[in-house]
C-alpha cells in the first residue's frame, strides 16, 4: 500500500504505474501450468508501422484493452500480444519520402550507404529526384525506419495503458513471420490451393504492381461518351456503340448485347469490322450487357474494365491486350491488325500514355468519319488501387493466386458457414462478410511486384534455351525456410547456375501484405514453432478489428485457417466503428483530417482519452472535435472524482468495520450489486460501453448522494446509539463500495484505479478479482432495499433546491422540513430520515404520506440568522 497524497492528481500516473507494471510483469501471459480452458487469447491487429498512429487507433485499441482487462480480472490467463505490420507498400512509400530514394533492383549493393535525405515526410522530393539504390540497400532502409517507428508506437501504446504482454510481439517481416508465411504458402501449393497463371490483372501503373479485388475502391471521375461506327461484314450498314475508352479500340475482340435485346438478336453470330483498324470481330450475347446503357451494345476490349475480363473469360475470346506495365500502349500491334492503314494508325498511338492515345484516336476517328455525333461528357465511377492516384488498368501478367471460393462452390459454402458460426459483435457486421464472400469474382491474387515483403519461396528451372519452366516450380523444404529466391540457391543447384540455360531463376515477386497478415493467429501463437503455445491459444478467443477490413483481413484469415486446418481461427470478432471529424467525415490520412493522439494524451491524460474511446459501442462511429473534446473532459472529471472520493472514503476511522446494519447503507450496496450484474452481462456480450455507462451512472449517485448522506454518520457525528455500529456500518459500506467501484472502472481508467487501489488494496487492481454481485448482496442482506438511495436522494435534491431558491447557503440550518412521499415510500424514507436530517442540518424532519407521484419537499423553514 502507498500513502494517500494530500492532493491526489492524475498528472504523472502514467509514468509512475507504467514502470511498476513493467517491473512486476503485471500483464505477462502466465503460461506455466495453463490449460486451454483457462486462456483468453486476442488476435491483436498489428498496426502498419509507417508514419504515426492516429486517434482512430486509440479508439479501437482501447475497446480491445477493456476486454483484455475484464477477462484478466475474471481469472483468465490473457494472451494479449502485439504485432507490427511492417512489410508492404505503405512502408516502401514512407522510406522513399523519408530518405529520398527509390529502389532499382538492377543496381549493385553499396556497403555503408548513406541516404541523401533523412527526416520529415520528404514529400517535397519529386520521384524523379529520388536517388536509385539497390534492392538490398532499399530493404535495409525499410528495416531501419520501421524499427524506429515501432519504438515510437510502443511508447504511445504504453502511455495509453494497453495491457499488452510486450514479450509476445512479432514483426510481419521478422524471421519467424517469414518462415510461417512461406511454410503456409508451400502447403497451399502442395495441396493445390495456390497456383500460378497468366491472366488479366488489375494493375497500378504508378506503383507497377498487381492489385487484388479487396484493395479496390471506386472514385467518381470525369469522362465522356464517344459514339463509334462498326461496319457490318454483310454490308447491312453500321452498328453504333458508345464507349468511354476509344483508346482501346485496337484491343477490341467482340461486340456484346443482352440475349433478350430484340434489337440485336438477329445479329448474334454475325461479325462486324472495327473502325480505323478494320479487324473482324463477332457479335455475341451475354447477360451482363445492359440494354438501357448507351446504344445497348458495347465493345469488349482486352481489357477496359473488370466486366471485360468476365466477358473474355466466359465467352472464350482472344486476348489482344495493348497496354503495358507502365500504362503506355505497347509498341507492337496485335496480330489481328493486318491492313497497312490499321498498322499505320496503331503506330500513331504506340508508346503513348492512355490519355494521349485517347486524344489521338479521337482525332483519327473524326478524320475517318467513324465518330458519330457529339462527344458527351459524363462522370462515372472508376476503379482505383486504394493507395493509388491513377485509375487502374488491366494487363496480362503471370501471377500467383490462392483459391478463395470464387470458383469453388464447396469452399464458398464452408466459408459462409464459418461466418455463421463466428460470434459477431455487433451481429449486423456479419452481413458485410457474407456479401463479400458471395460477391467474389476471382481467386485471391497474392503476388506483388514490390521489394519489401515476404519473398515467394519459389525458383523455376531453365530449359536448354534458358527459358523458365513455370509449370515446374522448385519449392524449398520446410527446414530451409525462410528463403529469398533472389539470393538463395535451391537444393541440387549451385550459385553459378543462376540465370544459365539448364540452371534456375528465382522468383522476384513478394507476397501481398495480406498474405502475411492473414496468418496473424499463427504468427502470434507460435504455429509450427511452439506447438504447446499454439494449442493453448488457438483458436483465439477474439479478433478485434475495423469494419473497413472485413473483406481483407477478416476474410483472408478465415480462408487461411479453413485451408490449413478446417476451422475458424477465433470464436468472436469485435468490429469497431470509425472516427469521424466534426463534419461527420471519416478520419483518414489521405483526407488530411486525422488527429495524432500524443498531444491528447499529454493534455488530458490517458484515462480521460480512454473514457472517450470506451464510451462508444462496437460497430458505432464516433465523432471527435479536437477543439471541443467534451467526452474527454467528462472522462477526466470522472477520474479526478474517483481519486477524491477514495481519499474521502478512506479518511474515516475504520475501526469496528465488519457488518452493515443501516438501511441506507444496505440499500446502496443492493443497488451496487445490480450494477455489478449489469456490467458483467454487458462485458460478456462485448458491450464495454454499456458496462461503463451503468458503472459511471451509479458512481455519480454514490458520490453526489450517498457520500453526502452518510458523511456525518461516518464521522460519528450523527446517528450515535452508543454502540458505534451506525458509524461502523457506514464506513464498512463505503469501503466495500469503493473496492467494487475501483474494480468496475479498472478496465476503463487503469491509472486512476491503480493509484486508488494502492491506497488500500493488495497487489495490482488489474490482477484483482472482478466483483461478484452475490458477495455485495450478502453484505447488504437479502431484504435490502435497492431503491432506497434513489428515494432519499430525491428528497436531498428537494431540500437543496429549497435552500437554493431561498438564496441560502447549503449549510444553513433548517428548523422544519416536511417531505411528502407516495404512501408506499413513506416508511422506506423514514428508515433513512436520520441521515437526511444530518446532511440537511434539519432539526425536525417529517416524512408524510401524500397523494404525490414522487418525493417532494412540501415545506421548509430555515433558521433565521442572528443579527
UniProtKB/TrEMBL annotation:
Pfam families: Anticodon_1 (PF08264), tRNA-synt_1 (PF00133). It comes from the Bacteria. It catalyses: tRNA(Val) + L-valine + ATP = L-valyl-tRNA(Val) + AMP + diphosphate. Gene3D superfamilies: HUPs, Isoleucyl-tRNA Synthetase, Domain 1. Coiled coil: none annotated. NCBIfam families: alt_ValS (NF000540), PRK13208.1 (NF009687). Residues 665-815 form the Methionyl/Valyl/Leucyl/Isoleucyl-tRNA synthetase anticodon-binding domain. Its EC number is 6.1.1.9. GO terms for molecular function: aminoacyl-tRNA deacylase activity; ATP binding; valine-tRNA ligase activity. Residues 18-101, 129-624 form the Aminoacyl-tRNA synthetase class Ia domain. Belongs to the class-I aminoacyl-tRNA synthetase family. ValS type 2 subfamily. ValRS has two distinct active sites: one for aminoacylation and one for editing. The misactivated threonine is translocated from the active site to the editing site. InterPro entries: aa-tRNA-synth_I_CS (IPR001412), aa-tRNA-synth_Ia (IPR002300), Anticodon_Ia_Val (IPR033705), M/V/L/I-tRNA-synth_anticd-bd (IPR013155), Rossmann-like_a/b/a_fold (IPR014729), tRNAsynth_Ia_anticodon-bd (IPR009080), Val/Leu/Ile-tRNA-synth_edit (IPR009008), Valine-tRNA_ligase_type_2 (IPR022874). PROSITE patterns: AA_TRNA_LIGASE_I. It is found in: Cytoplasm. The gene is valS. ATP binds at residue 589. Catalyzes the attachment of valine to tRNA(Val). As ValRS can inadvertently accommodate and process structurally similar amino acids such as threonine, to avoid such errors, it has a 'posttransfer' editing activity that hydrolyzes mischarged Thr-tRNA(Val) in a tRNA-dependent manner. Keywords: Aminoacyl-tRNA synthetase, ATP-binding, Cytoplasm, Ligase, Nucleotide-binding, Protein biosynthesis. A motif ('KMSKS' region) lies at residues 586-590. This is Valine--tRNA ligase. GO terms for cellular component: cytosol. Monomer. One of its GO terms (biological process) is valyl-tRNA aminoacylation. A motif ('HIGH' region) lies at residues 47-57.
Amino acid at each position: 500500500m502507498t500513502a494517500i497524497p494530500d492532493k491526489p492528481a492524475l498528472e504523472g500516473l502514467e509514468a509512475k504505474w507504467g514502470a511498476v507494471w513493467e517491473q512486476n510483469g503485471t500483464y505477462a501471459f502466465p503460461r506455466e501450468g495453463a490449460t486451454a480452458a483457462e486462456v483468453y487469447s486476442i488476435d491483436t491487429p498489428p498496426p502498419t508501422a509507417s508514419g504515426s498512429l492516429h486517434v482512430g487507433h486509440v479508439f479501437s485499441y482501447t475497446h480491445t484493452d477493456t476486454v483484455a482487462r475484464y477477462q484478466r480480472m475474471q481469472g483468465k490467463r490473457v494472451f494479449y500480444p502485439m504485432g507490427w505490420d511492417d512489410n508492404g507498400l505503405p512502408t516502401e512509400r514512407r522510406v522513399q519520402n523519408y530518405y529520398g530514394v527509390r529502389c532499382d533492383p538492377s543496381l549493385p549493393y553499396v556497403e555503408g550507404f548513406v541516404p541523401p535525405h533523412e527526416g520529415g515526410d520528404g514529400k517535397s522530393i519529386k520521384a524523379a529526384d529520388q536517388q536509385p539504390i539497390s534492392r538490398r540497400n532499399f530493404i535495409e532502409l525499410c528495416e531501419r525506419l520501421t524499427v524506429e517507428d515501432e519504438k515510437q508506437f510502443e511508447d504511445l501504446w504504453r502511455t495509453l495503458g494497453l495491457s499488452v504482454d510486450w514479450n509476445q510481439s512479432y514483426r510481419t517481416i521478422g524471421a519467424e513471420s517469414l518462415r510461417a508465411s512461406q511454410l503456409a504458402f508451400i502447403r497451399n501449393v502442395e495441396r493445390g490451393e495456390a497456383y500460378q497463371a497468366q491472366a488479366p490483372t488489375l494493375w497500378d501503373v504508378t506503383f507497377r504492381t498487381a492489385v487484388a479485388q479487396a484493395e479496390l475502391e471506386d472514385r467518381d471521375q470525369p469522362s465522356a461518351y464517344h459514339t463509334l461506327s462498326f461496319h457490318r461484314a454483310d454490308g447491312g450498314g453500321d452498328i453504333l456503340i458508345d464507349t468511354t475508352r476509344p483508346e482501346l479500340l485496337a484491343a477490341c475482340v467482340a461486340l456484346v448485347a443482352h440475349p433478350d435485346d430484340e434489337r440485336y438478336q438477329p445479329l448474334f453470330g454475325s461479325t462486324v469490322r472495327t473502325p480505323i483498324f478494320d479487324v473482324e470481330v463477332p457479335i455475341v450475347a451475354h447477360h451482363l450487357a445492359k440494354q438501357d446503357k448507351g446504344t445497348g451494345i458495347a465493345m469488349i476490349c482486352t481489357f477496359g474494365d473488370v466486366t471485360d475480363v468476365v466477358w473474355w473469360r466466359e465467352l472464350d475470346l482472344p486476348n489482344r491486350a495493348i497496354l503495358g506495365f507502365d500504362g503506355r500502349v505497347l509498341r507492337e500491334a496485335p496480330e489481328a491488325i493486318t491492313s497497312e492503314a490499321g498498322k499505320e494508325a496503331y503506330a500513331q498511338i504506340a508508346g503513348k500514355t492512355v490519355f494521349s492515345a485517347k486524344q489521338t484516336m479521337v482525332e483519327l476517328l473524326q478524320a475517318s468519319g467513324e465518330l458519330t455525333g457529339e462527344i458527351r461528357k459524363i462522370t462515372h465511377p472508376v476503379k482505383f488501387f486504394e493507395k493509388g492516384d491513377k485509375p487502374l488498368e488491366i494487363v496480362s501478367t503471370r501471377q500467383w493466386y490462392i483459391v478463395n471460393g470464387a470458383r469453388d462452390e464447396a469452399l464458398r459454402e464452408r466459408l459462409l458457414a464459418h461466418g455463421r458460426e463466428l460470434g459477431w459483435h455487433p451481429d449486423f457486421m456479419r452481413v458485410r462478410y457474407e456479401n463479400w464472400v458471395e460477391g467474389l469474382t476471382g481467386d485471391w491474387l497474392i503476388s506483388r511486384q514490390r521489394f519489401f515483403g515476404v519473398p515467394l519461396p519459389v525458383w523455376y528451372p531453365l530449359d536448354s534455351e534458358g527459358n523458365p519452366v513455370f509449370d515446374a516450380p522448385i519449392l524449398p523444404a520446410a527446414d530451409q525456410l525462410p528463403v529469398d529466391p533472389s539470393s538463395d540457391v535451391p537444393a541440387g543447384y549451385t550459385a553459378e547456375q543462376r540465370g544459365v540455360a539448364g540452371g534456375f531463376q528465382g522468383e522476384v515477386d513478394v507476397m501481398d501484405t495480406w498474405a502475411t497478415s492473414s496468418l496473424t493467429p499463427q504468427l502470434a501463437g507460435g504455429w509450427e514453432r511452439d506447438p504447446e503455445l499454439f494449442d493453448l491459444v488457438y483458436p483465439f478467443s477474439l479478433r478485434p478489428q475495423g469494419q473497413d477490413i472485413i473483406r481483407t483481413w477478416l476474410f483472408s484469415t478465415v480462408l487461411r485457417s479453413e485451408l490449413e486446418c478446417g476451422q475458424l481461427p477465433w470464436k468472436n470478432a469485435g468490429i469497431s466503428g470509425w472516427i469521424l471529424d466534426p463534419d461527420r467525415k471519416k478520419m483518414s490520412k489521405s483526407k488530411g483530417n486525422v488527429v495524432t493522439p500524443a498531444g491528447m494524451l499529454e493534455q488530458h491524460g490517458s484515462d480521460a482519452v480512454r473514457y472517450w474511446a470506451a464510451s462508444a459501442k462496437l460497430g458505432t462511429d464516433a465523432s471527435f472535435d479536437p477543439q471541443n473534446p467534451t467526452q474527454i473532459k467528462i472522462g477526466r472529471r470522472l477520474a479526478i472524482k474517483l481519486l477524491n472520493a477514495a481519499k474521502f472514503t478512506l479518511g474515516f476511522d475504520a475501526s469496528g468495520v465488519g457488518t452493515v446494519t443501516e438501511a441506507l447503507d444496505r440499500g446502496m450496496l443492493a443497488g451496487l450489486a445490480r450494477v455489478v450484474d449489469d456490467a458483467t452481462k454487458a462485458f460478456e456480450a462485448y458491450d464495454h460501453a454499456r458496462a461503463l455507462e451503468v458503472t459511471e451512472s451509479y458512481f455519480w449517485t454514490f458520490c453526489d448522494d450517498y457520500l453526502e448522506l452518510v458523511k456525518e454518520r461516518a464521522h460519528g457525528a450523527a446517528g450515535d446509539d452508543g454502540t458505534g455500529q451506525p458509524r461502523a456500518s457506514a464506513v464498512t459500506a463505503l469501503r466495500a463500495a469503493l473496492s467494487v467501484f475501483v474494480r468496475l472502472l479498472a478496465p476503463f481508467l487503469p491509472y486512476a484505479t491503480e493509484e486508488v487501489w494502492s491506497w488500500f488494496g493488495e497487489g495490482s487492481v488489474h490482477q484483482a478479482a472482478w466483483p461478484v454481485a452475490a458477495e455485495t448482496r450478502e453484505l447488504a442482506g437479502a431484504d435490502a432495499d435497492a431503491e432506497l438511495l434513489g428515494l432519499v436522494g430525491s428528497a436531498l435534491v428537494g431540500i437543496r433546491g429549497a435552500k437554493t431558491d431561498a438564496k441560502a447557503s447549503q449549510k444553513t440550518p433548517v428548523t422544519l422540513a416536511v417531505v411528502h412521499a407516495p404512501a408506499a415510500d413513506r416508511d422506506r424514507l423514514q428508515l433513512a430520515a436520520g441521515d437526511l436530517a444530518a446532511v440537511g442540518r434539519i432539526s425536525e424532519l417529517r416524512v408524510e404520506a401524500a397523494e404525490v407521484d414522487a418525493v417532494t419537499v412540501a415545506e421548509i423553514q430555515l433558521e433565521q440568522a442572528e443579527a
